[in-house]
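Worked example

This section walks through a single chain of length 203. The input is the sequence exactly as stored; nothing has been trimmed or padded.
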Amino acid sequence: MKVTKYFEKNGKKNASKSKALQLIEKICPDIEKNKQIKPSMFINNIFEKIEKKFNPGNATRGAIFEYLFMCVFFRHNITPFYYQVNLSYVPNVNFDFVLFETTKKPIIISIKTSSRERYKQVELESLVAKQVHKNARTIYVTYEDDSIRFIQRKKELHEIHYIDEVYTTQDKDFDGLIKDLSGRDYIDPGVTKIINTGIYLEN
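Given that input, the structure is written out below as tokens.
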């Protein structure tokens, strides 16, 4: 199924008007094709081809990365999830992705195309989230891998306290993360009024 149609089917209105999704569709017309490809390879191959062929601006580049991340979720049945989320009692913070396990434990995922300084923002957002949702699992995923060791070293030195896990899509550990997430069951916690705003997507 075409990428834009797939997103519209699963809750993303006006997906066909998204420039980022249009570019993804030009490189990957069928979201369900070749599901045996590892998540890291799926994201990196498409992202690199789009960059080389279309040279998107920073805003579009970030949106492409987010949508490719969602494609991976759909391809590996990691649903339902929320995108661009504002949680109750966590004001003025929008999280990239949130999943809720059946225990209602939130898994909060922040993704950035570059990371060396952006980790400070993610650390602060993770702190705010954990003040309300103390059992939250906070994950930071970046496309670029040149600074991932820098961030991991910060964690080892206890200079980063609230980001639980750090990954780059360039590394096989990211495939392990997706395998772990795909082995869990998720729910829509809407009835508990945990979500204030966010786009709800499922397949």
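What to look for: The chain has a mean pLDDT of 90.
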